[in-house]
UniProtKB/TrEMBL annotation, chain A:
Residues 54-74 have a biased composition (Polar residues). Component of the eukaryotic translation initiation factor 3 (eIF-3) complex, which is involved in protein synthesis of a specialized repertoire of mRNAs and, together with other initiation factors, stimulates binding of mRNA and methionyl-tRNAi to the 40S ribosome. The eIF-3 complex specifically targets and initiates translation of a subset of mRNAs involved in cell proliferation. Component of the eukaryotic translation initiation factor 3 (eIF-3) complex. Pfam families: eIF3h_C, JAB. It is found in: Cytoplasm. It comes from Friedmanniomyces simplex. The lineage of its organism: Eukaryota, Fungi, Dikarya, Ascomycota, Pezizomycotina. Residues 14-174 form the MPN domain. InterPro entries: eIF3h, eIF3h_C, JAMM/MPN+_dom, JAMM_MPN+_peptidase_M67A, MPN. This is Eukaryotic translation initiation factor 3 subunit H.
UniProtKB/TrEMBL annotation, chain B:
The lineage of its organism: Eukaryota, Fungi, Dikarya, Ascomycota, Pezizomycotina. Residues 331-342 have a biased composition (Basic and acidic residues). This is Eukaryotic translation initiation factor 3 subunit F. It is found in: Cytoplasm. Keywords: Coiled coil, Cytoplasm, Initiation factor, Protein biosynthesis. InterPro entries: eIF3f, EIF3F/CSN6-like_C, JAMM/MPN+_dom, MPN. Residues 313-362 are annotated as: Disordered. Component of the eukaryotic translation initiation factor 3 (eIF-3) complex.
Length: 379, 362
């Protein structure tokens, strides 16, 4: 109870360099649907955490060493679950820590901001809130410092058109609870920790260097009003002209896509999984309550018996037996940790927000389409 | 990305056999694909170079097609080196260990060449090029790709790619000279990078060179504004043609007509019906998700709430238990509701909610 709550970090926002964004996208899409994890380096300047470089963690893959062809069968669900756990645990694995230290040492030689400031993980449709994530971040916040963040890149949602990249940190109150390692009903009541308080989201901004800005300006952009293009002579010329066909930094119109069903379906599916996990947790809690009640009934019966016995002994002028012997005789069941239940709650909240977001976007688009196809009614 | 220059490829005769032993034997044309993250990394490295150094170099990693004629540069890392008028020194040990580290994380990305941040090609370039294309640690038998990215302030950033051919009259001369042959390159990005690039490009016109990440709705708003602007431009052009202020173009007219004919012809009632169905589906899913969230929140709160019923702690504990069971029951009812409505409201989701509901009942 004498633990001092960890000092709150002054970092209020996260700034990413374009390089980190591109590296993250490449790594995450390269290993999809496996989660990609890696390390972020940069430095913290006042209230800003500047992330300027990143590198992936090597995939720890013990299957290769056993050489068993059956074990590397990707269709095997157990194998996949194993892989998933391995990939998620990578940031706090010993090999990754040494890899990270070595890499940072080398990066320092070439003037990269050599300070580990966090880690990144990729997910699909917001399914990142789990025990592994929390453990990793707690590990980082304890080992590297309170300012470290976890960047979560959502591959699934980013394919919809807009980049989905979020920065999270564990709240000081959660860190305090995590340090104690106790998530019982009693301790949660005392610290009044709610699942909404586990993670703190930080705003993320992208920052380009001067050199990159000048490079981006030099790339072909959308034609300005004063450029005078020669009119094409035929349709095929219009298609062939490379200056018209590809415009790399043109607005990405993917997010005007109307199809939302696959995304909704996936999210609802994951939501159902979460409910199931919640159900399991609830069953555990109920089981605990029942066995606790049973034990308590037994203890009460024993105490009553001992009292009567003692009353009898007092009458017979004998020394009474100790009444607290039940503590040795009966063992109270251990209360299951409520951490998992809280995480499920947080995860469900994440999904619900996500679906809200989908709903908002898609209804806007739908009304647009309707107004377009039924012009009479729109006016 | 628009860097489509024309190259003429001539297969060069191989250099005399004794010299060729330490050299790349392939002089076939190579085409190079650059990925933006490699380019960004080079630019980042260039801006972090020591103040007294003209250029910095690094190693290119990537993949190579089977016959070795196509190289895709996907990653790179900086290598420290010092260069004076007389000599060049490169940290070979560093290069080797860094390569090992990268190979551990991404075994598929192999050494393909090196980059320098100035477009100058000099004797030292030849030396380094020969180091990278040597046998053993180098890219032999494939040619090493040399990428130069000029980063002179006030001038355009210019990227060039080369492979080399051995040249020199004696073996000693050949070791520090080579002929750089320009090869075509293009900058390619994949679908997934598009959204990232768009955002990065968004920061380009801003004074502070930074851009906050946007929510889906903001992105949508911007996309719609852009579409409206484009439509405006097209309709201005068309009306100008009508007013005979702009020269007409049959090709453009045809193109616009083709585009317009893509608009589906559906009758109003169908649209109305489909529209209502879809919007209801979406709203229903959203509503149910929020209901589930509330239920789980409630259940969590009840489980940890300090419920005092005037009795001792024992009573309070069992009270909490009962409350929680009620919460669970309530949720079961909700889920049942979801299944019914889901089945009635939409076909594609009923299959989804069905198993979920059953799972809940077990």
């Amino acid at each position: 109870m004498t633990t001092i709550p960890p000092a709150e970090s002054p970092v209020r926002e996260v700034q990413l360099s374009a390089l980190v964004v591109m590296r993250l996208i490449k790594h995450a899409t390269g290993v999809f649907p496996q989660p990609a994890t890696g390390c972020l380096v940069g430095m913290d300047v006042g209230t800003q955490l500047q992330i300027t470089n990143s590198f992936p963690f090597p995939a720890s893959n013990p299957d290769n060493t056993t050489g068993n062809p059956n074990s590397s069968n990707p269709a095997d669900p157990y194998h996949q679950a194993d892989q998933l756990a391995l990939a998620l645990a990578a940031p706090r694995a010993k090999s990754s820590v040494s890899y990270q230290n070595e890499m940072i040492k080398y990066l320092r030689e070439v003037n990269v901001d050599a300070q580990g400031v966090g880690w990144y993980v990729s997910c699909s449709m917001g399914n990142f809130v789990n025990a592994s994530f929390v453990e990793n971040q707690a590990f980082y916040q304890r080992a590297t410092g309170e300012q470290t963040v976890a960047l979560v890149f959502d591959v699934g949602r980013s394919s919809q058109g807009s980049l989905n990249l979020k920065a999270y940190r564990l709240s000081p109150s959660f860190m305090a609870a995590h340090k104690e390692g106790k998530f019982t009903t009693e301790s949660i009541q005392k610290s009044s920790l709610r699942y909404q308080d586990i993670l703190i989201e930080l705003p993320v901004a992208i920052h380009n260097s001067h050199l990159l800005t000048s490079y981006l300006h030099q790339l072909p952009t959308s034609p300005t009003a004063d450029t005078d293009l020669a009119l094409p002579a035929s349709l095929s010329e219009l298609r062939r002209n490379p200056h018209l066909a590809s415009n790399p930094l043109a607005p990405n119109l993917d997010n005007l896509d109307l199809s939302i069903d696959p995304f909704l379906e996936k999210t609802v599916d994951q939501l159902l999984d979460s409910i199931e996990a919640h159900q399991t947790e609830q069953n555990n809690a109920q089981y605990y309550q029942r066995s606790l009640a049973r034990e308590q009934v037994k203890i009460q019966a024993w105490q009553l018996k001992r009292k009567q016995e003692n009353a009898l002994r007092v009458q017979q002028k004998q020394t009474p037996l100790p009444e607290d012997e039940w503590q040795k005789l009966f063992k109270l069941p251990v209360e299951p940790s409520r951490l998992e239940a809280m995480l499920v709650g947080r995860q469900v909240e994440q999904y619900a927000r996500q679906i809200d977001g989908f709903g908002a976007v898609v209804s806007g688009k739908m009304f647009g389409v309707r107004g377009n196809l039924l012009p009479g009614e729109a006016s | 990305m628009g860097d489509s220059q024309n190259y003429l490829h001539l297969a060069r005769p191989l250099a005399p056999a004794p010299i060729a032993s330490s050299q790349s034997s392939v002089t076939a044309p190579v085409s190079v694909t650059l990925q933006p993250q490699a380019l960004f990394s080079i630019i980042d490295h260039a801006s972090r170079r020591p103040a007294d150094q003209e250029r910095v170099i690094g190693t290119l990693l990537g993949t190579r097609s089977e016959d070795g004629t196509e190289v895709s540069v996907t990653n790179c890392y900086a290598v420290s080196h010092t260069e004076t008028a007389e000599q060049v020194e490169m940290d070979m040990d560093y290069q080797k260990r860094m390569l090992d580290l990268h190979l551990r994380a991404a075994p598929k990305e192999v050494l393909v060449g090196w980059y320098a941040t100035s477009s100058e090609l000099n004797t030292f370039s030849a030396l380094i090029q020969n180091f990278y294309s040597q046998q053993g640690e180098g890219t032999f038998p494939h040619p090493a790709v040399h990428l130069t990215v000029s980063t002179v302030a006030g001038q355009d950033v210019e990227a060039n790619t080369y492979i080399s051919a051995p040249i020199g009259v004696t073996a000693e001369r050949a070791a520090d000279s080579c002929l750089f042959i320009p090869v075509p390159h293009e900058i390619k990005y994949d679908e997934a990078s598009k959204s990232g690039l768009e955002l990065i490009a968004g920061a380009r016109d801003r004074e502070d060179r930074s851009q906050l990440l946007q929510t889906d709705l903001e992105t949508l708003e911007r996309a719609i504004e852009q579409v409206l602007e484009m439509l405006e431009r097209v309709s201005n052009y068309v009306s100008d043609v009508f007013d005979e202020e702009q020269p007409p173009s049959t090709a453009l007219g045809q193109f616009l007509l083709n585009t317009l004919s893509l608009a589906p012809k559906v009758n109003a009632e169908d649209i109305e019906r489909d529209f209502n169905h879809h919007i209801q589906d979406v709203l229903l899913v959203s509503y149910l998700a929020n209901t589930i969230r509330t239920q789980i929140d409630l259940s969590n709160r009840l489980a940890t709430a300090a419920i005092t019923m005037g009795g001792d702690t024992n009573v309070a504990g069992s009270g909490g238990d009962q409350q929680k069971q009620q919460g669970g029951g309530e949720r079961g009812v909700e889920r049942g509701g979801q299944r019914r409505e889901g089945g009635g409201g939409q076909q594609q989701r009923s299959g989804q909610a069905g198993p979920g509901g059953r799972r809940g009942e077990q």
